Amino acid sequence: MTLVASAHADHGAITRDRGGTEVVDHYGKPARVGKAVRNVVGTIEMGYGVLAVTGSDRVAFVDNAVSNRVPTADGHGVYALLCDPQGGIETDMYVYNADERLLVFLPPERADPVREDWASKVFIQDVAVEDVSDELGVFGVHGPKSTEKIASVLAGPGAPEPPLTFVRGTMVDAGVTVIATDAPLGEEGYEVVCAADDASAVFDTLVNRGLNAAPFGYRTWDALTIEAGTPQFEHELAGRIPNVLGIRNALDFEKGCYVGQEVVSRVENQGRPSRRLVGLSLVGLADAADAIDGDADPDAVDEVLPAPGAAVFDGDEAIGAVTRAGVGPATDAPLALALVDATADPTADSVTVRVDGDERKATLESLPFIDGSAQSARLPHYPNAVES
User: Fold this and answer.
1) Which among 88, 216, 295, 311 is least surrounded, fewest beta carbons within 10 Å?
2) What is the pLDDT of residue 286?
3) Is residue 344 within 8 Å of residue 319, measured between CB atoms?
4) Is the pLDDT confidence value at 174 over 60?
């Protein structure tokens, strides 16, 4: 549940459930707020589940489970995956070395299953796994002015760099940890972690003190990540082999064994996966412009966009499906991410997407759709693929 519900209500927030956790969906004009994030800076309360892993064997234990190498030094983090024996993604996560414990940030619905799974696998190791989601507030700060924003309110060190490193300081007398993100929105970004009791003061500071930051919710987050070409767990990653998404920043091909590694390595060595993630500009929805502009009701926007799973065609041949769609805040256009056959070579004149029973023209786009102040580390990368 959000830790600053009253503050969100003051801004007119509409909330929704995300993996069993209440988060802000939007504040009334998600596309317009998205422009503020693209042009200046915005802040969002993140709906993470958070695990704390302690004990002298904590680094080796988690490193043995995940797809990337867990850092051994305080102040450093990594993006990683937990896979099943068939190579399917069970969850993605960020793992941070926070001195005497590892902090694992993951989708909220995955926190308890991962905690139970890891706890059941501790035998003679000195490892303990605890869910600390209710003890911490986590706020994202994103946009081309996010470094300026952090500098205006953080007492102590300067903003951290490079990505997935962090520093400790204070904001309005509250102790905080500030993490440099891997740019999921295609902009400079940070996450500010604080004790739950300090969450209201920290959120107010991020929105109103120093350089003002527009509060935004997960509907805007989703649209911004589409523009940035960043696959998200609930939409693109869950159950899929990581090679299909091209998220090579989550994989260390030199580290020791982890569950699903054989499948991931085999697909890598075969040259390319059977599908790939692409962008689609939904030009055939131009006639719905009034319904999808920045002042439209968000629910009305959803009604004119293709639903997840909508078929993508090259001529008469089905070549894939949409994973999600939204209105790009920077582009002012309906956009989508889709998984299509890796061997397909659709042209601008032949691609269509099924929307409410009709075939609508679409244009295949390279990702990202926009050039922001940074580039998402999760951009699909297929080193052996044939480009179309």
Assistant:
1) 295
2) 64
3) yes
4) yes
115 backbone φψ class: left, alpha, beta (φ>0; ψ -120 to 50) = alpha
* Type of residue found at 347: T
Give the C-alpha distances (Å, rounded to integers) separating 270 from 33, 240, 263, 265.
43, 17, 11, 9
Res. 243: pLDDT tops 70: yes
Q: Compute how many other C-beta atoms are within 10 angstroms of the C-beta atom of residue 8.
A: 21
Map out the domains of the chain with their CATH numbers: 1-272 (3.30.1360.120), 274-371 (2.40.30.110)
Question: What region, left, alpha or beta, does residue 117 occupy, with left being phi > 0 and alpha being psi -120 to 50 degrees?
Answer: alpha
Nearest to 222 by CA among 123, 308, 98: 308
The tokens describing 375, both together, are: 């580039």
Question: Which residues, 6 or more positions from 242, have their beta carbon under 8 angstroms from its beta carbon?
Answer: 67, 81, 83, 87, 89, 250, 251, 264
pLDDT band at 291 (very low <50, low <70, confident <90, very high): low
**Structural contact between residues 353 and 377, judged by C-beta atoms closer than 8 angstroms:** no
What is the spatial distance between Cα 192 and Cα 104, in angstroms, rounded to a whole number?
15
Burial of 327 from C-beta contacts in 10 A (0-12 / 13-18 / 19+): buried
Q: What is the DSSP string of 293-332?
A: STTS-HHHHHHHSPPTT-EEEETTEEEEEEEEEEE-TTT-
* Residue in this structure with the two tokens 């959120």, named with its chain if needed: 203
Q: Is the pTM of this model over 0.90?
A: yes
